[in-house]
Amino acid sequence: MEMFKTIGKAWNIPDIRKKIVFTLLMLVVFRIGSNIPVPGINREILDEAFSGDSGLFELFDLFSGGAFSNLTIFALSITPYITASIVLQLLTIAIPALERMSKEGVEGRKKITRYTRYFTVVLAFVQAVGMTLGIFRQYLISTDAFHIITVIFVLSAGTAFLMWLGELINEHGIGNGISLIIFGGIVARVPSAAINSISNVKSGTISFVNICLFIAFAILVIVVIIEIQQGQRRIPVQYAKRVVGRKSYGGQASHIPIKVNQAGVIPVIFGMSLLQLPQTLVYFWPNSGFAEGVSKWLSTNGAPGTYVYSILYAILIIFFTYFYTSITFNPEEVSENMKSNGGFIPGIRPGKPTVEYLQKVMNRVTFTGAVFLAVIAVMPIVIGNFTAIDFRFGGTSLLIAVGVALDTMKQLENQMVMRNYHGFLK
Fold it and tell me: What string of DSSP letters covers 281-340?
């Protein structure tokens, strides 16, 4: 109820209302594009191929909102941009020039963003070539050079357009554009998933008990996600009292909030993106031993693929949770800022002891958040292999959707607070 009240209050503010409407219109454009098919595709053969279980291809459908299985202009979705962002962030740590650039402020970030765009286009082109010459070649009406080149450029342009759409939302809308595009794809799958579940219950494929278990699981996951996302460890900070002339400054108490899940849903998205890389390489060698190995060891269906995939997925999530948290929270910088402002943690000496204390607390809190993300993302994949109902993307989809919704609402509240401050100052 509080969420709807916040949206209602935001809607009454003209500037924020324009941003909300703009964001919704961009998501509508995304959904329209997700239903425009790539030219020259035999739809009947394509529908038959994806009418059953499509294995790891479902990962692409999760981000594209069904655009991959329908081979529309947004079939590649935004995954090349996510992969490019991962690579650039890792290179920022490994390459001193990029590290210096990241510390140059706004101009440095603009340069890194520009490099990310270029790399995204390259990755999108590589994936488009692999898809067209690999798995989707058999669904083309014509395999002449002109037609293949057309399909490749249409798919590449679709990803570039989505990247531009996400940046437009960042600039003129509410929330993170890339995350909202993924959110829109997930939400778009809900009606069809509900219809399929009802049909399976009527046909006896899935029992009503399994549906109830899934709903209970979904509600439990949503509640836990909200609690973890909002949870934080507050480290008390005391500021020394200073007397300047006849006035006294400081002396008040504050705290440093360290979120349990500082990284949000980024580790889950990054982990899924990297696990899609072997599947992308399979496009180039669809009938090779490498393709058979990927199908055996990185499949979400059956042993041993399910367990290997789940373990790798969990490891990647934990790694990216620590990695992203270390980027967003720097104990040395926080300690230096406290020291320069006359602040200190009670019982902890300023300087290196404070840095070590903050690092220790951050590691413990981050471990809880990392394990939580890994369990929520991996558990449905394992459970799905022992039940008739498709649990594979229940946890991951809910995790991303709820996480993005919470982040967007927080940004909306922040803009409303800023708006109120502006009004007060005026």
Answer: HHTTSTTSHHHHHHHHHS-SSSTTHHHHHHHHHHHHHHHHHHHHHHHH--HHHHHHHHHH
